[in-house]
Specification:
This protein has six helices and eight strands. It is an alpha/beta fold. The strands form two sheets. Strands 1, 4, 5, 6, 7 and 8 form a six-stranded parallel beta sheet that branches. It has a two-stranded antiparallel sheet with strand order 2-3.
């Protein structure tokens, strides 16, 4: 009986410990649990290619106050290695915000289904393959990217999601791109830790070669 009580008590302690650990992680970096990183499925590399992305400079988890956002660095690698054009989704809504208030705002936007405005536009019909990149905020792309999704029809195109993160991997980003564009070919997804991007060009190049670029 004493042995049984000890086993039960140990199991309870393990459950409590796991729950606290997961909660602390999510509070720290507004991300969901880690998922697998890249799938290197070959894509058709003929036709024009575009990188659409949102990137947040300023106060970021793990890397501190940065002048160039993590996702932009990856987007620049993609353009350099593939010749792809770029369209950066820009909004001044988050400018100058400290990390914690930004997390709170991002959570509120997601809960309310808000679609923040962004600057400029792009002739999307000119492109056949589109990389879609952003940080992972509360398990998916920032809401301003969903504003882009609501404005542009990318069905029928090849879409390649990528993310920068500090523990969430791809989160629900691939699922959400497929939901937004059910008739698109969504493939070749990739994720990378934000604190690794500044020394991670070779990793991005390896991923792109797996997709058929640079061979």
């Amino acid at each position: 009986m004493k042995a049984l009580k000890y086993i039960l008590a140990s199991a309870v302690c393990m459950l409590v410990s796991t729950a606290c650990s997961g909660s602390k992680k999510n509070e720290a970096n507004v991300n969901e649990p880690v998922q697998e990183e890249a799938q290197t499925n070959a894509v058709t590399t003929d036709g024009k290619t575009l990188v659409v992305f949102f990137s947040h400079a300023g106060d970021n988890y793990s890397v501190g106050d940065i002048k160039v956002g993590n996702t932009k660095i990856v987007a620049d690698y993609i353009s350099e290695l593939t010749g792809a054009d770029q369209f950066e989704i820009k909004t001044n809504k988050y400018d100058g915000m400290a990390y914690k208030p930004l997390c709170d705002l991002a959570k509120k936007e997601q809960a309310n289904g808000e679609l923040p405005a962004f600057e400029g536009g792009i002739d999307i019909d000119a492109y056949e393959t589109i990389f879609i990149g952003g940080p992972v905020w509360w398990g998916t792309y920032p809401q301003v990217m969903f504003t882009f999704f609501s404005k542009y029809d990318l069905n029928g195109k090849t879409l390649i999601p990528f993310t920068t993160h500090e523990g969430s991997g791809l989160g629900n980003c691939v699922k959400d791109v497929k939901k937004a564009y059910p008739k698109a070919n969504v493939t070749g997804e990739f994720s990378m830790y934000g604190h690794d991007v500044r020394s991670g060009k070779a990793t991005v190049e390896k991923w792109l070669k797996g997709l058929g670029y640079g061979k």
